[in-house]
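Section 5.1 Outputs to date
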Amino acid sequence: MNLLYSKSFIKAALKLSGKYKNTLQEKIKEVKVAESIEELTDCKKLTNFSNAYRIRIGDYRAFFILTVVNNTVNFEYLVNRGDAYNKEYIKNLRRKDKGKE
């Protein structure tokens, strides 16, 4: 799969500690070599979204939009589990998800 990263995702990834940074790198490699979304571990489709998914990375959640046409994964957010389902993040993710239909 092709990978794209938002500025907020990159900024959050740079702030991670060693353990989480290594896990994130492993998950990104897993996404890159996967041929389909079903091959990803700890990945779930978000309810009431058409192309939005999340990957569990310890206490963090990585949210992404999958563009089926060119098999591109656009990582949008990397946030702590407690903040992951904040209304602001969900609203922005829903807006970006609608643009990819």
